[in-house]
UniProtKB/TrEMBL annotation:
Biological process annotations from GO: NAD+ biosynthetic process
Record: active site: E44 (proton acceptor), K113 (for glutaminase activity), C161 (nucleophile)
Domain CN hydrolase intervals: 4-257
Any coiled-coil regions, as ranges: none
A molecular function GO annotation: glutaminase activity
Protein's recorded name: Glutamine-dependent NAD(+) synthetase
Family classification: Belongs to the NAD synthetase family. In the C-terminal section; belongs to the NAD synthetase family.
Keyword ATP-binding: yes
Protein function: Catalyzes the ATP-dependent amidation of deamido-NAD to form NAD. Uses L-glutamine as a nitrogen source.
């Protein structure tokens, strides 16, 4: 047996906080060593924080990381553990995103990332250079390039994030060159359902390349990107360990690397493929001898046996029901996003929400409170302020719902009418218009803008983080007010479709039995900016709206193609009505781009987000002729 204890860490970093980030890494590294960890793994860009975006263009931002890497090496010099962690370097004018191998007080080598994503939320090719097969350079006297590392426990192949996502990535040539343990450092943002994709991918790569894969991922939120952690350890296709998500820390497990070699020898297909690769001139990756750098202590490691003490029977099923998993993941991700933005900016003292008594502001409040329960478990409500600002169109039902939920949560609540100010602003607008009347839509917008203005005034005076409460569906069609409910410092649910908002509230009501949630759900969704206003009557049924958004913005279908898909999806709806919904959605969507590009920073939970600087980059000024049938 060749037993190795692996530690997979997730560190909640802040971009640019090099000293604090390194301190957090050191704290976990010392604990790992105390627990007898052989190899400790930390995420991509753990010293700098991720994503640094264009900050890497500052030479000082790159250069200042190296002293922290050296400090990490010095302060772990006496530990009998190998560590691999993420760092950026500047090399001959290029910025390289590297995995640094550290042991015995020295940086033993640097392996740069080869696959640079420039899609969805990623822009790495804009700022970083690539590693490449056969790269063999030095940086500050340290080997830099395409290398493997031989330790007294086995041969290790470091790589960074996207490198694992390509079947033609570096893992193939590195395992063919003798790598037994592939270590992947990642900063992969949370996306709905994506954890299953990661798990399957890692199992596939470990089986295809007949190796052990140790994958660690970042945790925490920087700006609008949320990282859920969740590392994996997989040996030759067999799942060994999954680390907790949405929390900082590390987990450990023991593997027998002799098992990896034995299975490799038994896999005739792998052996034949390797022989073909070598015979066709495959370039072997050089191995750096690091056996004298550190002497690991593995004598006390025990063979990894199943916790339920059977090699043949399945262990207890700990999977959550699909509904619970979906809802809890979304809620955990958004609460983490709110909390990290609130804490890491260091600009705010309290969270503020304008409650309408409706679904969107209610869900935003519940997410903020979810964070507050972790930050101030003794009195979570003290971290939040809620305001209800009624006009003549506000109903007693929404007022009662807002008051009930805040009382249940222990959140301070104030009612501040805007009716007098509404009359004043409407009169001023009428004076400015002269003979032209103030339109009904303007009257609605006046109310929304008054509420936003008051929230900003409150925020400026008390250091409050003004949370914007609009959802993705209504934002996509401009059912929102510039200077009004579109405004805020952080858009919490701006990338959550309306049907998902309602699904989450149903789940929370069932789970908690909250009377406040029940009262909100009892009333049809509507902004209450006019008499008897119902959102679905003014727009379309929300399931149809969300389907239109997904098909047009996500699947990139034309109106004719959308109609075909919707006809199959909603056979109970008459064809002319569906056609009208499609036409209305496309018209409103194209007309509303100018609105949502002005919205505040939003939290990302999927691949399809309304954020011009992240996922969906669309021109504001555009024509629609290309969508017409020919």
């Amino acid at each position: 047996m060749r037993l190795v204890k692996l530690g997979l860490a997730s560190v909640n970093t802040t971009v640019g906080a090099f000293i604090r980030n390194t301190d957090r890494v050191l704290a976990q590294a010392r604990k790992m060593a105390a627990e007898g960890v052989t190899l400790g793994v930390f995420q991509e860009q753990v010293i700098a924080g991720y994503p640094a975006e264009d900050m890497v263009q500052w030479q000082g931002f790159i250069e200042r990381q190296w002293p922290e890497l050296e400090r990490f090496a010095r302060e772990t010099a006496s530990l009998p553990t190998v560590f691999i962690l993420g760092v950026s370097i500047a090399q001959q004018g290029l910025r390289l995103n590297c995995a640094a191998v550290v042991a015995g007080g020295r940086v033993l080598g640097l392996v740069p990332k080869e696959k640079l994503p420039t899609y969805s939320v990623f822009y790495e090719t804009r700022t970083f250079g690539r590693g490449y097969p056969g790269m063999a350079e030095t940086h500050r006297g340290v080997p830099l390039g395409d290398y493997l590392f031989q330790f007294d426990f086995g041969v290790v192949a470091p790589e960074v994030c996207e490198d694992i996502w390509s079947p033609e990535g570096p893992m193939r040539r590195r395992t063919y060159s003798g790598a037994e343990l592939v270590v992947n450092l990642s900063a992969s943002p949370f996306r709905l359902g994506f954890v299953d994709t990661r798990r399957e991918l890692i199992a596939t790569r470990a089986a295809d390349h007949q190796c052990t894969i140790a994958y660690c991922n970042a945790v925490g939120s920087n700006d609008g990107l949320i990282f859920d952690g969740g590392g994996f350890l997989n040996q030759n296709g067999r799942h060994v360990m999954e680390t907790p998500r949405f929390q900082e820390g590390y987990s450990t497990a023991v593997v027998d690397l002799d098992r990896t070699l034995r299975l490799r020898g038994e896999a005739t297909t792998w052996r034949v493929d390797r022989e073909s690769w070598l015979s066709e001139g495959g370039q072997r990756v050089p191995v750096l001898d690091c056996t004298q750098a550190v002497h690991t202590r593995r004598e006390s490691l025990a063979y990894p046996v199943p916790a339920h003490r059977s090699f043949f029977l399945p262990g207890p099923d700990q999977r959550r029901p699909a509904r619970e998993a979906l809802c809890e993941d979304i809620l955990d991700a958004l609460a983490l996003g709110v909390g990290d933005y609130f804490e890491k900016t260091r600009a705010f003292k309290v969270l503020g929400i304008a409650l309408s008594g409706g679904r969107d502001s209610l869900l935003t409040l519940l997410i903020a409170h979810r964070y507050a329960k972790k930050a101030r478990p003794e009195d979570p409500g003290s971290l939040i302020r809620a305001f209800y600002m009624p006009s003549r169109y506000s109903s007693d039902a929404t007022s009662d719902a807002a008051e009930t939920i805040t009382r249940e949560l222990g959140v301070p609540f104030q009612i501040v009418s805007i009716d007098e100010a509404f009359e004043r602003e409407r009169a001023i607008a009428q004076k400015m218009l002269g003979d032209k009347p103030v339109t009904p839509i303007t009257e609605q917008n006046i109310q929304a803008r008054l509420r936003a203005q008051r929230m900003w005034n409150w925020s400026n005076s008390c250091g409050g983080l003004f949370l914007q409460t609009g959802n993705m569906s209504e934002k996509s069609v401009g059912y929102t007010t510039i200077g009004g409910d579109l405004m805020g410092a952080l858009a919490v649910i701006a990338n959550v479709p309306k049907t998902v908002v309602m699904y989450l509230l149903d789940y929370l009501q069932e789970k908690t039995g909250s009377e406040g949630i029940r009262k909100v759900l009892a009333k049809p969704a509507g902004p209450e900016l006019a008499h008897n206003q119902v959102g679905e009557e003014e727009l379309m049924p929300f399931p149809v709206l969300d389907a239109c958004f997904y098909l047009h913005a996500g699947e990139k279908l034309t109106p004719a193609e959308m109609l075909q898909a919707l006809t199959a999806m909603f056979p109970e709806v008459e064809a002319p009505r569906l056609s009208g919904y499609v036409e209305k959605f496309v018209r409103l969507f194209q007309q509303s781009i100018y609105k949502w590009v002005q919205s505040p920073l939003s939290l990302h939970i999927g691949n399809l987000d309304l954020d011009r600087e992240r996922a969906l980059q669309l021109p504001v000024v555009t024509g629609t002729e290309w969508m017409r049938d020919t």
